[in-house]
Amino acid sequence: MTRAARELPRMIEPGAFLGLLGGGQLGRMFTMAAQSMGYRVMVLDPGADSPAGSVADAHVQADYLDAQGLRTLASHCAAVTTEFENVPAESLRFLSEHCRVSPAADSVAVAQDRIREKQFLASAGLEVAPYKVIESAGDLAEGVAHLLPGILKRSRLGYDGKGQIRAEHADQLGGAFAHLGGEPCVLERRLALALELSCVVARGLDGRTIAWPVAENEHASGILDVSIVPARVPPGLAAAARDAALAVAERLDYRGVLCVEFFVLDDGRLLANEIAPRPHNSGHYTIDACVTSQFEQQARALCGMPLGDTALHGPAVMVNVLGDLWACGEPRWEHVLRIPRAKLHLYGKREARPGRKMGHYTVLADSVEEALRAALDAREALRNDAAVAL
Ligand code: ADP
Ligand code: MG
User: Fold this and answer.
1) How is the chain split into domains, by residue range?
2) How confident is the model over 226-244, as pLDDT tens digits?
């Protein structure tokens, strides 16, 4: 850390500008949370009209590697965070010479690269799915039979199931590797998953950690579909996931909010899947169902403020709203809003494309079953309307 960074006051007071790399929905929800505490937010994003840029106090329209844009951010902001895990680590390093940056470039770099991430998870004592690093086509020639059927995942720049190809047989691997650009990949065995879990945790500037309740996640086509909280698993399994996520944050010497995704196998074994060095889609329920949301916590941690309570008010189910629902135009939101304890969040994206995350809603209820039923009934109604177009 440079002298300038060390001399910054530990607590950044409301009124200051906070910088944000990335203009997506995670950034939008961070911006809104920080603004409601009185901070101002400056977003750096290359798009003209991004979900976060359109609500921020200032928008620097520039590429993440643009020196001028980064200098503008550094000169106005007391601290900078990121909402986008593929933000170049060198940009974070550059910014850290001028202002506080959390999470640090080194933590983000681990999560940006599946090969480093898996090695890190294993070194932290967490079990991961059987895999092999594939750096060239020659690496596919042997030692892969036990990983089939498998998933070839590009090591860098994947998200929401992108940059992944499923393979049943060895003879499909060469084509899949070429299709992914011949870039470093991991070939991972496709496991029969009993369910998926995630745990969002925060670690403050003082090193204090706190976890939110563990979420049970359902995915469709590699994209998160539904999060159910609390997860319907034995307390010991939820505690193991929480402890593992906290251990990851400690071991990375992490500052800020991170999420660890887990697989649970039929025999109850818990495997770590991946780390997101930022708030996570499976933590959106915290906005409406917890005392402190993951986005408020991100602002608290960034500003060196004490962390807030993560207690859950009650059972909650979050449903992602994808662009597919716009097949007949704007969905009829009364299907959601007629549930008195539903909270709708739309991200202000102008163009709805299939698979694009446009928003989410969270349903609160006295039991998980009741929340799930109401949440899925609403989605069924939205889907029925959209299906009329097909
Ligand atoms: P992303 O970065 O796109 O989230 P993930 O590696 O988390 O990539 O994969 C997305 C989803 O695909 C997972 O949440 C899970 O549902 C499924 N998946 C990924 N890897 C495996 C695997 N080895 N076995 C079974 N399902 C998997
Ligand atoms: Mg994932």
Assistant:
1) 3-101, 130-189, 193-387
2) 999 999 999 999 999 999 9
pTM over 0.85: yes
* Tens digits of residue pLDDT in 12-50: 999 999 999 999 999 999 999 999 999 999 999 999 999
Dihedral in degrees, nearest 10, Cα atoms 286, 60, 54, 316: -10
Q: What is the CATH number of domain 193-387?
A: 3.30.470.20
Q: Is 188 in the pocket of ligand 1 (CB under 6 A)?
A: yes
Question: Domain 3-101 falls in which CATH fold?
Answer: Rossmann fold (3.40.50)
What is the residue type of 340?
P
Class of domain 130-189: alpha beta
| 85 in contact with ligand 1, CB cutoff 6 A | no
Cβ density class 55-82: b for 16+ within 10 Å, e for less: bbebbbbbebebeebbebbbebbbbbbb
Q: In a mutational test of the pocket of ligand 1, which residue from 112, 113, 121, 151 has the highest number of ligand atoms less than 8 Å from its CB?
A: 151
